[in-house]
């Protein structure tokens, strides 16, 4: 195979501004119990860095694979992750863009954002508003989460942190 025969990455089109998609205006009182818990996880726990809520959402030895890379187990490891993210991004906010439930699973489309005010991924604070998308999948056991897997656009976040 010659270099001419090797496939190349398509150029494509620029992605639309990820901040223009509106967040859902969810009324937690109208959501199913599991969707309400996911709403609480983002709007009450993450947006306020209130890790006191973690035991009311998760089983003690739950597993978490975060959008920014780590695989964590339990309240303490997860709470440290929340503290790190929210200390790097001032006014950290989670916008729920879509949410769906099927059996013991709730999945969503999220936009995470804040103002970069502490070193993150080796990038000194810029003060810029940065954001990335994530797709969490919550697996419930009873009324609490046993596992949370989040696929996140870390490349998009890192490029926004390094933008000139």
* Structural Rg: 17 Å
For the record, the count of structural domains works out to 1
Number of helices: 4
CATH architecture: Roll
Distance N terminus to C terminus? 39 Å
What is the CATH third-level topology name? Nuclear Transport Factor 2, Chain: A
Q: What's the order of the H and E elements?
A: HHEEHEEEEH
Features:
164 residues; alpha+beta; Nuclear Transport Factor 2, Chain: A; six-stranded mixed β-sheet; 4 helices; 26% helix; globular
Your description of this structure?
The chain has 164 residues and is α+β, with helices and mostly antiparallel strands. It has a single domain (26-162), classed as Nuclear Transport Factor 2, Chain: A (Roll), CATH 3.10.450.50. Helix content is 26%, strand content 36%. The protein has helices spanning 33-46, 54-57, 74-88, 154-162, and strands at 58-65, 71-73, 89-102, 105-116, 129-141, 144-152. A 6-stranded mixed β-sheet has the order 2-1-6-5-4-3. The longest helix has 15 residues, at 74-88. The termini are far apart.
């Amino acid at each position: 195979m010659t270099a001419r025969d090797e496939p190349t990455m398509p150029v494509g089109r620029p992605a639309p501004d990820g901040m223009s998609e509106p967040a859902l205006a969810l009324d937690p009182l109208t959501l199913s119990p599991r969707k309400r818990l996911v709403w609480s996880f983002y709007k009450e726990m993450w947006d306020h860095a209130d890790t006191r809520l973690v035991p009311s959402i998760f089983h003690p030895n739950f597993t978490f694979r975060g959008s920014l890379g780590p695989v964590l187990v339990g309240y303490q490891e997860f709470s440290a992750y929340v503290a790190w993210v929210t200390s790097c991004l001032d006014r950290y906010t989670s916008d729920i863009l879509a949410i769906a439930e099927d059996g013991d699973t709730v999945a969503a489309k999220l936009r995470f954002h804040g103002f970069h005010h502490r070193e993150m991924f080796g990038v000194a604070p810029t003060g810029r508003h940065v954001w990335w998308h994530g797709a969490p999948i919550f697996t419930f056991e009873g009324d609490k989460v046993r596992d949370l897997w989040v696929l996140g656009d870390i490349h998009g976040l890192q490029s926004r942190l390094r933008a000139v």
